[in-house]
What we know:
Blueprint: E1 16-18, H1 21-29, E2 36-41, H2 47-59, E3 62-67, H3 87-96, E4 101-103, H4 107-110, H5 130-133, H6 137-152, E5 156-160, H7 164-176, E6 182-186, H8 206-224, H9 230-241, E7 247-255, E8 269-279, E9 282-292, E10 297-298
Parallel strand pairs: 1-4, 2-3, 2-5, 3-4, 5-6
Antiparallel strand pairs: 7-8, 8-9, 9-10
Amino acid sequence: MTDEPARPDGTASGPVVVRSRDELFAARSALGDGDVAVVMTMGALHEGHATLIQTARAAHANVIVTIFLNPLQFGPKEDLSLYPRTFDGDLRICSDAGVDLVFAPTPDVIYPDGDPAVRVSAGPLGDVLEGQSRPGHFDGMLTVVAKLMHLTRCDAAYFGQKDAQQLLLIRRMCRDLDFPVRVVAVPTVREPDGLAMSSRNTYLTESDRETAACLSAALRAGAAAAADGPSAVRRAARAVLVREPLALVDYLVLVHPDTLVDVPEWYRGEALLAVAGRVGTTRLIDNLPLLLGPGGSALEVLTVA
Length: 305
């Protein structure tokens, strides 16, 4: 339990905080009637996470937030120790958003036998785009998401559109492996300059922030050309990126949201315009769902999946 301050409406105390499996099972059982939504995080919560929680809070009787820095998602060249840890601030955000229960385990709680011998495989969808830059990342992500869905016994799970490949893979895991969980996408939350909110943004210097703005600007330029088809979208987005030499672009792709395969010129319908690049020492990703063809425009979230 925790002595967190009361929620803004004064109707209840802050969230119950549990760290062990037994504590989680007891607190989960004590939630009472009504369905349960979960928002899974690695900590370092920001306004994007708050929006996920608030969206879940508006639709469900009970909301659980998990705060777990999953070591399986970090590759050999990624320093887990550098990831920001802001637990007290995370709890304040959870309290303000009306979270009922926070599950904040350590790795030995989630992986009591050490690194799991059996993991969820992302398959071919996990080998492209982000999977090329971060081998094994999506297997680690799906493994912990599967475990947290089982442990929290949730009815619904909320994820941001910003991590579009992650969202697709979680949806496919639930569908292909018959998880009885509804996966809900929430629109990307952006900074005033258009930069997608991310815990990684804290690594950016002031000049880096100015450079990073080209990523979302490229997506907006591509969206403005959606009515004219795939070639126009790609051309408009690339024109923005080439004007910013300090942004080292990893990829800019226009793909089908179900397969992550480049869409052909004749294609009309939902597509995903995605970009990844390095600004300074920080690697950033962003995307914008589009409707291609007559009347085409940007979408808030993908409905195809």
